[in-house]
């Protein structure tokens, strides 16, 4: 599933680049890897995935593969940027879960449309968003806020970017990604044969990036972060811990 998502985003980017010419097109692409501790009760508690830091910007349109997000910026004045966005949320394959949870169905990705705002002041950004699923998978909705800063450790060469955020996910989102349907519970004797339906939940995120800018084209980044979930997610029978964390690194080359 993750490979299909990556291929879809890359194909979209290629189509954008092939249909446009001129100085408005900005493309950066690279490679890297990330190790992540899964929140689910999986066979392997830690998973290693490749990173493809692909970013495409053409005029007011943008695409970010790592953020699984694309958008159109329709307002950009006085430090405030408003965008219509599309964002994918990845699910899981039931074959990756521990054996006693194999009766679970796969959870495919859902795809949200929504509105995103970014207010920038000096080295700081305040980001907010609201989205809703249009794929028919989760029928869930999310809303959140994030604060991000950029500190010049070495002027023009080394930048430290920490962020902290909070996201509200409604019951549709929580049920789809962390719930257990009655048929799954009965077939696999999960949760004593009883379905698990989570209510709306809060997800807190803590992330950071340390970026070394080699020149105007090439940069290297170290990434790390964690997500903390509230009890509605933690109490799910398929959830191992209320937190997940990750670390990794990548390089990126910008074409001009």
UniProtKB/TrEMBL annotation:
Assigned keywords, A-Z: Cell outer membrane, Membrane, Signal
Compartments where found: Cell outer membrane
Signal peptide boundaries: 1-18
GO cellular component entries: cell outer membrane
Domain of life: Bacteria
Key word Signal present: yes
Family statement drawn from the similarity comment of this UniProt entry: Belongs to the MipA/OmpV family.
Name of this chain's protein: Membrane protein
Organism: Propionigenium maris DSM 9537
């Amino acid at each position: 599933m993750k490979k299909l998502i990556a291929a879809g985003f890359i194909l979209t980017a290629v189509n954008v680049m092939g249909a446009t010419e001129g100085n408005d097109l900005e493309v950066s692409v690279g490679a890297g890897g990330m190790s992540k501790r899964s929140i689910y009760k999986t066979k392997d508690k830690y998973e290693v995935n490749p990173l493809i830091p692909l970013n495409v910007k053409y005029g007011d349109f943008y695409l970010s593969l790592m953020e699984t997000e694309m958008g159109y910026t329709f307002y950009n004045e006085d430090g405030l940027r408003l965008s219509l966005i599309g964002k994918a949320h990845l699910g899981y394959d039931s074959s990756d879960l521990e054996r006693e949870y194999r009766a679970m169905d796969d959870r495919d990705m859902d795809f949200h449309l929504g509105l995103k705002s970014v207010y920038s002041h000096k080295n700081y950004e305040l980001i907010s968003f609201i989205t809703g699923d249009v794929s028919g998978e989760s029928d869930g909705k999310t809303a959140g806020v994030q604060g991000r800063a950029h500190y010049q450790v070495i002027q023009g060469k080394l930048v430290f970017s920490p962020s902290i955020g909070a996201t509200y996910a409604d019951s549709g989102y929580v049920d789809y990604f962390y719930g257990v349907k009655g048929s799954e519970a009965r077939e696999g004797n999960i949760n004593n044969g009883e379905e698990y339906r989570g209510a709306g939940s809060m997800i807190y995120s803590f992330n950071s990036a340390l970026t070394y800018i080699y020149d105007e084209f090439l940069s290297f980044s170290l990434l790390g972060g964690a997500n903390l979930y509230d009890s509605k997610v933690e109490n799910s029978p398929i959830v191992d811990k209320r937190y997940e964390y990750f670390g990794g690194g990548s390089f990126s080359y910008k074409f001009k």
